[in-house]
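Obj: model holo form, ligand = zinc ion.
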Amino acid sequence: MGNLSENFNHKDFACRCPECRGEYRIHLGLVGILEAIAVHFQKRPKIISAFYCEAFNEKLKREKLSWHAKGKAVNLAIEGIPAAEIFKFAEKTEGINGLGFYPEENMVHIDTRPIEKKELWIKERGKYSPLTTDKRHQYGL
Ligand SMILES: [Zn+2]
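Output (holo structure tokens):
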């Protein structure tokens, strides 16, 4: 039992940069979604990155409106589960309005941005682009 929910602790969502020593911010709706993912796959998702503090976000040169910097985004993987399976489940999950497929890192980005800002993308060779029908076919999404 985590201190935040069944599977999660605050520190799972802390910034990974060396400067802020684990500053964190997390949207509780996102924790609920992660618990639903855990129930579906019968496995605890591994949070690869979550909150980015201001300094870290700046260092990554992300746009000001990064959902990570708002505590509304995580990159996750589940041991033994292909990222494509996580992606497909996430796409059917209400509340996930930002969804990125990172096949080379075998992970998925999910965020709880407002529905009117809904976006799906793919990261290949370090580049982000919109998820097209061709790409869906290529990766079985
Ligand atoms: Zn930081």
